[in-house]
Amino acid sequence: MSISLRDRRRRALNVVMLGLTGVAALLTVVPLLLIFFYLIRAGFSALDMDFFTRLPAPVGEEGGGMGNALLGTIVLVATAGAIGLPIAIGAGVYLAEAGSSRLAGVVRFIADVMNGIPSIVVGIFVWASVVVTMGHFSAFAGGVALAIMLIPMVTRTTEEMILLVPPELRAGGLALGFTRWRTTIGIVLPAARSGIMTGVLVALARIAGETAPLLFTAFGNPFWQWSLNAPISALPLQIFHYAISPYEEWHDLAWAGSLVLIAFVLAVSLAARFLIRSPYKNG
Amino acid sequence: MPRLLPVRAGGNLADRVYGAVLVMFGLVIPGLFVFIVLQIGESALPAIREFGWSFLISSEWDPVAGEFGALPFIYGTIVSSVLALVLAVPLAVGLAIFLTELAPRWLAGPVGFATELLAAIPSVVYGLWGIFVLVPWLRDAVQRPISDALGDSIAIFSGPAYGSSMMAGGVILAIMIIPFISAVSREVLAAVPAEQSQAALALGATRWEMTWQVALPYALPGIIGAVILGLGRALGETMAITMVIGNRPEVAVSLFAPGYTMASVLANEFAEASSELNLAALMEIALILFGITILANAIARVLVWRVRSKRGRA
Questions:
Q1: What phi and psi values does residue B4 have, to the nearest 5 degrees?
Q2: Is B267 an 8 Å CB contact of chain A?
Q3: In A87, A91, B100, B207, which residue has its Cα 20 to 30 A from A7's Cα atom?
Q4: Backbone angles phi, psi at A59, to 5 degrees
């Protein structure tokens, strides 16, 4: 059986174009591999116990670490979680319950749009509203900025996870004479818990890596500090300052800091992906 | 999507309180949004009064003399983002097609996961990698050879090869937005009804013809939405681009020349604002940036949702 020229051309085009999509896939994976390669190569050699336990050393001195920045990131993320999570989960429950009402539609739309606000703008807003009011930079202001990043993300995942709970569960609760709030708190939320936890973990990992919202809020601090009322350092802030500095030793520390940050973000993402899986979500 | 029971007035007291509390939580988000607009708008007011529209078209940025024009930053933001889209869109859509139409499961899983990881890398880490790996590489392996071959004959490739440049900014942004564009594109491509693609194959179309003539046209609004979503990310991206773009407030045609973006000037100069007017000018830049990204996200959301809800009806 002979294949016409036209068909041959069609088949050739098919192979070429699909091949090109494969090339596109390859090209997008290459930067990832390159980033990890350099992170591990440059980061591991600068990583030791001092990195986790010591303060940054002054220029020219050997050693030093980022212990204060690690502590700062923990304080900031915890503060952001304490402020943002109750609001976000509450708003997520609202969206799931209020469903298709017009107000819920507006809230959902604004939450989605706010997900894309540049993080630097959030930082500047918090500077103008919190830092100026308090009169100084503080861990609290940094926490507020990160909370604003957190709220839209967690709100939408919470809503989605609640909607995955089979409606029969809720109907069952109501049929047994539970009030609506007890049905939600006692039945629906526990059923959606693992899914919501996943969303929370992913969002916390994401804000732990944010730099721009902290530049003019948490500001940075070269010393051990855990008061919410004073400037505080954070791992991404410290990486940024070290990366743009002219000193070789600081560049090494920036790589080590990045490796730690990435390891943390990936560990949380992997945990969210594999350990906690909603029983109602397939795949 | 099935919705749960609506929150209604009536019922017992506890449920009414519960409903009211929920509405309050829901209102926090729009409230926050309005508060951000008002706060930044108010802070920007002195600059808006002082410069009017000329703020947008003046390229004079001299804090010492009290002259503020945002054009170099607006230009830098737009050019770097457009460059990022030009590089990222073919790759991201190609990747999405590869993952939905071509790749076997054992390959699609890991490749999809790898691109998700790209989205999870913090901006500052991209910046660090950009400074020490991407910028030197671009300078030595891309810019120098082009310079040597072309001289200054083509305007966008003219001038000395610094490394830190608009080009470096565009490339790092492209790497950062590919995961967003491809993830959403993949989702809308997967929403193409199986009847349609299978009908095309049954009529004798090749896999590519099916993709090009059936799947892509169906998914197009969603893909455009995905691209605008990526654009929104690129416009507002701060740390990575600040670290590689060179930070020089000039409108230069050459992609080899350093540039500056709105987000970068905020990151670099906000803490050092020397006067009330300087601060207000930076606030106005923040307001413009906020407005542009909100617009991009709103358009993207509407487009992506339209395709998704089509799937709901099909």
A1: -80, -175
A2: yes
A3: B100
A4: -55, 135
Give A 36-95 residues with CB within 8 A of chain B: 38-39, 42, 87, 90-91, 93-95
Whole-number pLDDT of residue A2: 65
Can you give the C-alpha Rg of chain B in angstroms?
A: 24
Cβ <8 Å between B4 and A163: yes
pTM of the model: 0.92
Q: Do A261 and B125 touch (CB under 8 A)?
A: yes
Helix axes A248-270, A235-243, angle to 10 degrees: 150
Q: Which residues of chain B have pLDDT under 50?
A: 1-4, 6-7, 9, 312-314
Tokens of B183: 């993830």
Matching residue, tokens 């030093």: A64
| CB < 8 Å to A115, chain B | 297
Helices and strands (DSSP H and E) totals, chain B: 14, 2
Task: Give the residues of chain A that fall short of pLDDT 50.
Answer: 278, 281-283
Buried/exposed code over B121-136 (b: 16+ C-beta within 10 A; e: otherwise): bbbbbbbbbbbbbbbe
For residue A71, the tally of other CB atoms under 10 A from its CB is 18
Beta bridge partners of A219: A232
Query: Which residues of B are less than 8 Å from A14 in CB distance?
Result: 206-209
- Whether A232 and chain B come into contact, CB under 8 Å, resolves to no
CA separation for the pair A156, B151 (Å, rounded): 52
**CA B248, CA A155: separation in Å to the nearest integer?**
39
- A4 is written with which tokens? 């016409």
